[in-house]
């Protein structure tokens, strides 16, 4: 089968489309014939900061397709099932998923939509529900709102009934976001973010912040949180790892900081999140209340072009590879 391999280096990203043997699912895994896969920023972040080089590795972490083989301990899925979810080597003709990460496609959902309805939404869910305990009418600020995770957080925040402020470096993207129920859009960098947020919220500050950007805005986030505010760090596109902030604000405002990443999380913890997501969010995707926003759909052999679009920040919504 054909499979894309990626090497990240200081010079940039190098891709190879290789012919490799079809993988064999382990006892708790399934093998699917991939129909569509989605791009996620994390795996394309360039290694210019650490200067580490990786070897070529099969790439792609999210896709949708038809089950063609199941491991001997998999009871909940059968051959022919249409599934979506976190996977290994998703930019391939066939890919492996842990059965516990696979969700059955709601009827009527296209392959392209299904391919991008898992990781960003589960990440946003993790921050808004279990991590951030966001409540109706609370203020949610999403830094880097035009990102895949940011758009998913906007839609889920609105599903809860929160009021949402978003930041972007692009006025054009903020204007597009007005059509997606964004309450306030702020340009970053621009005037003091905290001052603008305090004005919008009548001096209260925001209850929950989703920081997609990184350490460069951490201190500003601490300044604009309300009493008992929560701050979720989901990633870093700014390349900054260190932040200096006024810790007395954390103390007096009783702030909570937490991170969201799948790197150290065990299988069972992930399955628990996927199950909660299935109950709390999947019905809204099935009935069309939540509609993943698709930016562009590329052909299988166009992966490098698709990645260029993402790393140039030209996209608005998810970039899909049709296999
Ligand atoms: N994808 C996931 O499910 C997932 C899961 C866990 C963690 N993460 C992390 O979350 C972050 C977002 O991932 P994604 O896949 O959603 O990203 P994405 O769709 O590629 O969006 C990233 C956005 O960040 C903004 N941006 C880029 N460089 C920036 C900079 N130097 N300063 C300020 N803003 C910048 C751009 O928005 P504007 O052009 O509008 O400014 C860009 O569209 C990444 O750090 C990723 O590793 C993602």
Layout of helices and strands, plus pairs?
Elements: E1 2-9, E2 12-19, E3 29-38, E4 57-58, E5 62-70, E6 82-86, E7 94-98, E8 103-104, H1 111-115, H2 119-131, E9 139-143, H3 148-160, E10 163-168, H4 171-178, E11 184-187, H5 193-200, E12 206-211, H6 218-224, E13 225-233, H7 247-253, E14 256-259, H8 267-280, H9 282-286, E15 294-299, H10 303-311, E16 318-322
Parallel strand pairs: 9-10, 9-12, 10-11, 12-13, 13-14, 15-16
Antiparallel strand pairs: 1-2, 1-4, 3-5, 3-7, 3-16, 5-6, 6-8
Helix content: 25-40%
- Overall morphology: globular
What is the level-2 CATH architecture name of the largest domain? Answer: Alpha-Beta Complex
Assembly level? single chain
How many β strands by DSSP? 16
SS element count, helices: 10
Structural class category: alpha/beta
Could you tell me how far the N terminus lies from the C terminus, measured between alpha carbons in angstroms? 12 Å
For the biggest sheet, the summary is: 7 strands, mixed
Strand content: 25-35%
Could you please describe the fold and organization of this structure?
- Helix 2 (119-131) packs across helix 3 (148-160) and helix 5 (193-200) packs parallel to helix 6.
- The protein folds into two domains: 2-117 and 292-322, Alpha-Beta Complex (Quinone Oxidoreductase, Chain A, domain 1); 120-259, Medium-chain alcohol dehydrogenases, catalytic domain (Quinone Oxidoreductase, Chain A, domain 1).
- The strands form three sheets. Strands 3, 5, 6, 7, 8, 15 and 16 form a seven-stranded mixed sheet that branches. The protein has a six-stranded parallel sheet with strand order 11-10-9-12-13-14, with helices on both faces. A three-stranded antiparallel sheet has the order 2-1-4, with no helix packed on it.
- The longest helix is centred in the C-terminal third of the chain and has 14 residues, at 267-280.
- By secondary structure, the chain is an alpha/beta fold.
- Helix content is 28%, strand content 29%.
- The chain has helices at 111-115, 119-131, 148-160, 171-178, 193-200, 218-224, 247-253, 267-280, 282-286, 303-311; strands at residues 2-9, 12-19, 29-38, 57-58, 62-70, 82-86, 94-98, 103-104, 139-143, 163-168, 184-187, 206-211, 225-233, 256-259, 294-299, 318-322.
- Bound molecules: NADP nicotinamide-adenine-dinucleotide phosphate.
- Residues 40-42, 119-120, 123, 144, 146-149, 168-170, 173, 212-213, 234-238, 310, 313 line the site of NADP nicotinamide-adenine-dinucleotide phosphate.
């Amino acid at each position: 089968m054909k499979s894309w391999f990626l090497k990240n280096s200081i010079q940039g990203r190098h891709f190879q489309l290789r012919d490799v043997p079809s993988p064999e699912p382990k006892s708790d895994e399934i093998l699917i014939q991939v129909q569509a896969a989605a791009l996620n920023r994390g795996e394309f972040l360039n290694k210019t900061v650490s200067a580490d080089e990786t070897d070529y590795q099969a790439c792609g972490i999210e896709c949708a397709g038809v089950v063609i083989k199941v491991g001997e301990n998999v009871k909940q899925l059968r051959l022919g099932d249409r599934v979506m979810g976190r996977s290994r080597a998703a930019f391939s003709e066939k890919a492996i998923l842990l059965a516990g990460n696979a969700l059955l496609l709601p009827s009527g959902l296209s392959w392209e939509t299904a391919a991008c309805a898992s990781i960003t939404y589960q990440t946003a869910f993790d921050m808004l529900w279990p991590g951030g305990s966001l409540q109706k009418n609370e203020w949610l600020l999403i830094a880097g709102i035009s990102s895949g995770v940011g758009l998913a957080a906007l839609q889920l925040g609105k599903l809860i009934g929160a009021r949402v402020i978003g930041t972007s470096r692009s006025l054009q993207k903020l204007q597009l976001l007005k059509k997606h129920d964004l309450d306030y859009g702020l340009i970053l960098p621009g005037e003091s973010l905290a001052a603008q947020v305090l004005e919008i919220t009548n001096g209260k500050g925001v209850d929950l912040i989703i920081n997609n950007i990184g350490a460069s805005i951490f201190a500003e986030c601490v300044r604009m949180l309300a009493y008992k505010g929560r701050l979720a760090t989901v990633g870093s596109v700014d390349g900054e790892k260190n932040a200096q902030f006024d810790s007395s604000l954390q103390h007096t405002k009783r702030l909570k900081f937490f991170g969201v990443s799948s790197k150290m999380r065990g299988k069972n913890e992930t399955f628990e999140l996927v199950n909660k997501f299935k109950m709390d969010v999947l019905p809204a995707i099935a009935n069309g209340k939540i509609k993943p926003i698709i930016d562009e759909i590329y052909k299988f052999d166009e992966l490098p072009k698709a990645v260029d679009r993402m790393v140039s920040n030209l996209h608005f919504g998810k970039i899909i590879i049709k296999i």
